[in-house]
Amino acid sequence: MNWQAAIERTVTGLGYELVEVERAARGLLRVTIDRVPGQVYPGPESESVTVDDCEAVTRQLQYVLEVENADYARLEVSSPGLDRPLKREADYVRFAGELVEITLKLPFQGRRKYRGVLQPRPAPQSGAGEGSAAEEAVAVAPAGWRLVLQDETPAAARKGGSKAGRSNAKARAKTVDEEAPVQVLDFAFDEVREARLVPVVDFKGRRARAAQPQEPQQDGGRTE
């Protein structure tokens, strides 16, 4: 088993989600983790990753990476932060209804970056029942995804770009009433190069932590 697989096995085995693994300058190995909804963790109740979580994962990873003879100088385990990256389609399901920013692989209407509320794109023939955003996303994920765009107007959405090399994403105006047309961008998961949550400070729940100076992290040197 290679060291990347060992990291994923270790993190998930401890009950956390592996968000990202990256190598940085000077031998830094950065591992980003998140708590799994519904999972019970030691210590005070929290939706976000705590310092204790990072310490527990760091201790276990130091041992595992030594066994795997991984080449690194320093290990850092941290939370994903308020601008958490969405790497997998399962992340889209989990964070349906949140404000996100996406970067398309190919430009659409002269742009690559769009910001809006993430929603599952309704299937052509959807059921009449209603459920949570995540439950609806699971049901219709194969149909693709939708952003309800922020600060967009029909005129802005019509501004063009070259037809060559365009994304297959589709933008249209969905009129709620005559004075408030809503712009939506429909796209497929594989059309996205990068997607991240947009930090929203509302002083309620998880996002209230935006006022903190930094996210929890544990910096552990390599054990020899």
Description:
- The protein is an alpha+beta fold and 224 residues long.
- Helices cover 21% and strands 31% of the residues.
- The strands form 2 sheets. Strands 7-8-6-5-4-9 form a 6-stranded antiparallel sheet. A 4-stranded mixed sheet has the order 1-2-3-10, with helices on one face.
- 24% of the residues are buried.
Radius of gyration: 20 Å
Which structural category do the helix and sheet elements fall into?
A: alpha+beta
> Helix-strand pattern, N to C?
HEEHEHEEHEHEEEE
Q: Give the N-terminus to C-terminus distance in angstroms.
A: 21 Å
**Proportion in helices:** 10-25%
Task: Give the strand order of the largest sheet, numbering strands 1, 2, ... along the chain.
Answer: 7-8-6-5-4-9
Biggest beta-sheet profile = 6 strands, antiparallel
How do the strands and helices of this protein lay out in sequence?
Layout: H1 3-13, E1 16-23, E2 28-35, H2 51-67, E3 74-78, H3 89-94, E4 99-108, E5 111-120, H4 133-140, E6 145-149, H5 154-157, E7 170-175, E8 181-187, E9 192-197, E10 217-221
Helix pairs in contact: 1-2
Summarize this, please?
By secondary structure, the chain is of the alpha+beta class. The protein has 5 helices and 10 strands; from the N terminus they run αββαβαββαβαββββ. The strands form 2 sheets. The chain has a 6-stranded antiparallel sheet with strand order 7-8-6-5-4-9. Strands 1-2-3-10 form a 4-stranded mixed sheet, covered by helices on one side.
